[in-house]
Amino acid sequence: MPSIPPDYFGGFMRKIYHALCKAEATVCGAGFICLVAFVFLSAILRFFRISMSWNIDLAMFLLAWTAFLGADIAWRSGQLVGVDLITRHLPKSVQKIIAILLYCIILGALTLIVVFGIWLMITERIRTYQSIPIPYSLVTLSLVFASLSMVFSTILKIRRCILTFNKKEATGGAK
Asked: What's the CA dihedral at 67, 73, 75, 78 to 10 degrees?
């Protein structure tokens, strides 16, 4: 029986994770393009006194999905605003301990969002938009999906902090 390399499952899971991240970015980008197109089309049609109320409902649906998926993409890539006025003057080991603590708090909050988001999805399953037969639970699913994805990203951030905890940081270069 052939032996399995030690990093086999890690490499396989890494490929799946990267594929899911790429799919998430693609869906987010396509949703944003459709969102802009629907709002623009609605404005043009309103100029000609043609009302299409389903355009606005679909745009709100796409706004929820693109906003939450975009937040996850920004969180994963480290492009969210952070305030480090105090921590940047601390030693690297203390910075990493504070980062791990903050990531754990964020992980707890995201877990609560997932749990209560699922509960909200269940309670909103009957309610639909006024002009299109899409249940509100699909909008709430965007929050649950993005929060769950953020949970995985946060776990990876915690793991990265722990694995690099004792490594010396390279010094030099422009700050």
From this structure: -130
